[in-house]
Amino acid sequence: MKLSIFWMLLESAAAFHAPSSPRKNRRLAHQASQVRGVARPARLYDENSENANFLETLALFRRIGAAATLDALLEGLKTRSVDFGRRDNIQWDHEEYRSTDGVKALYDAAHVDPFSFRSDFFRSLAPRDVARLNDFWVALRSEPYCKLLTGASDPTTVSELRDGEDRYVRRVKIDDVLYTFSLAKRGDKWGVEWILSEPDSE
């Protein structure tokens, strides 16, 4: 009898301390991303998906170097943001945003103050609120930044510059647009300070 009571107590304790389901965690992360002043969630994806491997690899590159970080970000924007770049509306299916991991990766790597109402991260646009994920998406989908997602040609490096151990700038061309990325190292990770877009004069 005592043994039976012991097992009942053990099962109750296990149920009480059971972790939340992955679906619930993703829903809570989505809700948290909509609230200003709350630390931006580092992950908004299914941990078992192929895109999870991409984001984990990017996290490693951010510790290795600026060039590797930017290479991964550009590849993600081009190949892992199909729905975001070509659909009029991005739908939350109560599980995850689909085919948008390239945008999430850039958002996570962006050096944007989460408490700021005005940011010049997108230098070719007037300073605006991009601290929330949804607002960041709106800015990235607008001209002239949208070709980072939908451009017909692959990014081609025009020039690059290293400034000491913690600054890196690269200019790339996509179709008829030039994009300048400024990266900086904060702590032990590289991130994007700002992106400038301008027409190619050639």
How would you explain this protein's 3D organization?
- This protein is α+β, with helices and mostly antiparallel strands and 202 residues long.
- The chain has a single domain (21-35, 44-199), classed as Nuclear Transport Factor 2, Chain: A, CATH 3.10.450.
- It is built from eight helices and four strands.
- The chain has helices at 2-16, 22-33, 50-64, 66-79, 82-86, 101-109, 133-141, 147-150, and strands at residues 156-162, 167-174, 177-186, 189-199.
- The protein has a four-stranded antiparallel β-sheet.
- A hairpin with a 4-residue loop joins β1 (156-162) and β2 (167-174).
- The longest helix has 15 residues, at 2-16.
- The model is unreliable at 12-48 and 85-89 (pLDDT under 50).
Keywords:
Nuclear Transport Factor 2, Chain: A; 4 strands; 4-stranded antiparallel beta sheet; alpha+beta; 41% helix; 202 residues; single chain
